[in-house]
Amino acid sequence: MNQDKRIRVLVAKPGxxxxxxxxxxxxxxxxxxxxxxxxxxxxxxxEQIVDAAxxxxxxxxxxxxxxxxxxxxxxxxxxxxxxxxxxxxxxLGGGIIPEDDVPELKELGISExxxxxxxxxxxxxxxxxxxxxx
Amino acid sequence: xxxxxxxxxxxxxxxNKDCLGKHTFRKCETDWGLEIKPxxxxxxxxxxxxxxxxxxxxxxxxxxxxxxxxxxxxxxTMRQYSGYGTADETNKRYKYLLQQGQTGLSVAFxxxxxxxxxxxxxxxxxxVGKVGVAVDSLADMETIFNGLPxxxxxxxxxxxxxxxxxxxxxxxxxxxxGIGTEKLNGTIQNDILKExxxxxxxxxxxxxxxxxxxxxxxxxxxxxxxxxxxxIAGYHMREAGATAVQEIAFTFADAIxxxxxxxxxxxxxxxxxxxxxxxxxxxxxxxEEIAKYRAARRLWAKIMKKRFGASDPRSxxxxxxxxxxxxALTAQQPLNNVVRVAFQTLAAVLxxxxxxxxxxxxxxxxxxxxxxxxxxxxxxxxxxxxxxVTDTVDPMGGSFYIESLTKKMEEKITDYIKRIDELGGAAxxxxxxxxxxxxxESAYRYQKEVESGKKVVVGxxxxxxxxxxxxxxxxxxxxxxxxxxxKLKELKTARDNQKVQSALLALRKTAEGYANLMPPIxxxxxxxxxxxxxxxxxxxxFGEYEGTSVI
Amino acid sequence: MELVDExxxxxxxxxxKLITLVENEMPGGVExxxxxxxxxxxxxxxxxxxxxxxxxxxxxxRITKELRRKNCTVGIIAxxxxxxxxxxxxxxxxxxxxxxxxxxxxxxRSMATRGSLGGLSRATSDTVKILDAYGKDYVIIxxxxxxxxxxxxxxxxxxxxxxxxPGGGDDIQAIKAGIMEIGDIFVVNKADRDGADRLVTEIKMxxxxxxxxxxxxxxxxxxxxxxxQGIGTLVEKINEHREFLVKSGMLACRRKERIRSEIIxxxxxxxxxxxxxxxxxxxxxxxxxxxxxVNKKEDPYLxxxxxxxTIAKRISKNANV
Lengths: 134, 551, 321
Hints:
The complex is a heterotrimer of chains A (134), B (551) and C (321).
Chain A: E1 8-12, H1 21-32, E2 36-39, H2 46-56, E3 60-65, H3 70-83, E4 90-95, H4 102-107, E5 112-114, H5 120-133
Parallel strand pairs in A: 1-2, 1-3, 3-4, 4-5
Helix pairs in contact in A: 2-3
Chain B: H1 2-20, E1 28-29, E2 35-36, H2 50-54, H3 70-73, E3 77-78, E4 81-82, H4 87-99, E5 105-107, H5 111-114, H6 138-144, E6 154-157, H7 163-176, E7 185-188, H8 193-199, H9 206-223, E8 227-228, E9 230-233, H10 235-239, H11 244-264, H12 269-272, E10 276-282, H13 286-307, H14 313-316, E11 320-324, H15 336-350, E12 355-357, H16 370-385, H17 400-422, H18 426-431, H19 434-452, H20 480-494, H21 497-512, H22 518-526, H23 531-542
Parallel strand pairs in B: 3-12, 4-5, 5-6, 6-7, 7-8, 9-10, 10-11, 11-12
Antiparallel strand pairs in B: 1-2
Helix pairs in contact in B: 4-6, 7-22, 11-13, 11-17, 13-15, 13-17, 15-16, 21-22, 21-23
Chain C: H1 2-9, H2 12-23, H3 29-36, E1 44-50, H4 56-69, E2 74-80, E3 89-91, H5 98-101, E4 106-112, H6 119-134, E5 138-144, H7 148-155, E6 159-164, H8 171-176, E7 185-188, H9 196-209, E8 220-222, H10 231-248, H11 250-281, H12 283-294, H13 300-320
Parallel strand pairs in C: 1-5, 1-6, 2-4, 2-5, 6-7, 7-8
Helix pairs in contact in C: 1-2, 2-3, 2-6, 4-10, 11-13
């Protein structure tokens, strides 16, 4: 009867951009792969995202952003996660993020950035593999 | 002719019998579930009455074209969507585009501006100048249009929740240039319903938002008669995953809601309906896109004439702007996008667009560079001048496939509108999450088809290559935010703050009552009240819309 | 247990982790709950249910805001269904709780029904206890739907609120059976819509028809949660009902009944765990018995009796260890 620990994912849209097609499609795909997906809705502040991650005890956070504000918002989210002792959560980014910016974001502790055209299966596999290691 | 049809029907049957079993035919279907036949003949168009259903260019029901002469009289307006960073940079980009032969401007605003926050608001951090130009006050607007004579331009502004304020700023700039507002040409998007469903830059709840819209209708019908007061948008729904049929259906449903609101506010339908304009999304399926626009022209004419009893032919006319599909661009092998954009642009022209923006090939990666914008503008110019598609009106009219598809799409769109009527109209359907849900289903289906390989996306899920990182992408100066904040500070010390306060107070009083909001907004703007200050007053009176994210 | 100590010290992280532990039925969960139990009994538990689209999440958000104005701390458990096909779930209630999601004194936890035998109600009642032990003044359980599972969950609360809305068509008909009796308060949300008054009348009639004798007359309150209308009245009624329960002694009764049914469920669950592993270990044996029973060579009653005996032996053996 003991269930396997179900993977809990927070899909969040930081910043002001309202383009949530990608986030919602991904949320559905993750659900269909058996994960429990908490969706925050659009226009989330870093504080709201980190509070949700804390309360929901998620294993991974997916941040989707298309407006170009990742340069400010991602570091702020990572900083708050560390502050609240959530540094062990697997954080992934997606949306429109120039390749040039990726190394810097990874240095902050974001494990991977998934660009446009990434298949949801790639993401699902990535999450499963990285969580089972951790 | 009737005998001919019978003979053709017989022969079609024979051909079907001879060939369909014998040869291999790939099964084809539209995204909205219509099976596409291997062959279309006159048999498929026999129920279409040419005079009633197709008619002539510039005449009801406008299936062929809204104007008699179409591109033989005037080409479409070539209007690339642009704007980024500071007002200064944007002004430079506009001057460049006009020099390159562009014939209209299309202003992209940054997200804080679209949501009514000044650049120094805490939620604006990281967003200032990113997806468009930052506008905090009239001063920025003056810079954007510095040296650009507003009476000789047509300007389209993609602005919704605070549309009244940006329009007021534009009117104020015109006044400073000594140009009467009756001479101004242009468009504001002003389409709040699709912000609730797919685009997300809403501020106020539905009721006050509709009031702002109808106030603009009323004000402009008197003072800015050539201005397109609303630009109802299907573009973003399509980007969010809607099918071609859903795009038109949901946009028309929104439009019906606005027309009803105008009538309810006491306006005559013919006073504002001719100023309705549209923006749609021209996607990959070539013939479907052409048929879509022909179906939309016919159906809108019917809706205006029959449903709303409009009697001015200009109210029946469906004139649209379209942009090629950003979501059809791939980040992989970005040069392939040049070809996609060319075909989409061609489809838009064959569909009879009045105004057109073509995406740039690098847009899946970043904001476009000067070179990539020029290439997409050149694409339009080549189609306009070199390949002969503008030499006659509606060259696709009469094609069995196109006419049949036009009819089928019109029927499907009508079904959707009926369903939304049953739900109580677009606003109610949005509140129930119906429209969002329908769009998301389509988006998810599409994604699954791409991932399973059922839908081929060249360079992305097939024909992939290893590629180097793209180079030479546009980067927005990260200092824009700091620059704007500094400018704001200076503005707030330099302006007459007493005047600002009394203008804002007058605005509040009007907002609490029923009078038209445009005059006090114009006064506040002229006193250099900031966008954020004006929106804050309205927020306090109207409250804020709360997002209902439906999955 | 360290995690429990952390919870007692007020660590939100530990609180969230402990909920995961019991929700996943991981080792140590039962032991943790043993430590948690003595700390419970202070929170007041509100159950909210109703058909989809009635506006429960927004209502929960507004009730919470109102309670926060009175300086009360709140824990929220928002339950959404698990997909029976994939085992996954989309939990979207937080979207409509933006007003309180960043309030330090509000803790929101989204839970999926998961759908194992009684699993949800156990996980929910454990989570309620953890939030209670953590020190929340109020715990709100919000669950969608009007099926038996939801009724069971809401029934464990101190007060049950049933939310409906006009224009829902046959909603009232659908929820008539059984569930009307559990409503301590009825809320007609989205009351600015046509048909609100008619709905109120319908509910009144249905309550009048109810044969259950009640000392508390369930009020019907009209709200427009999105506009903050009627929320003050609703919270007043919640408190009025609480006073009624306390004065009449019914609160103690209700809680006693709740514990009674929880104990029975715990026992059932413990026994079921033995049964589950017994069947898993002796799959072929049970398949063979099934064949024989189908072919009338054996009878099912005997098998049941013998199985219970085996379980009893196992239990006593474990107890001696």
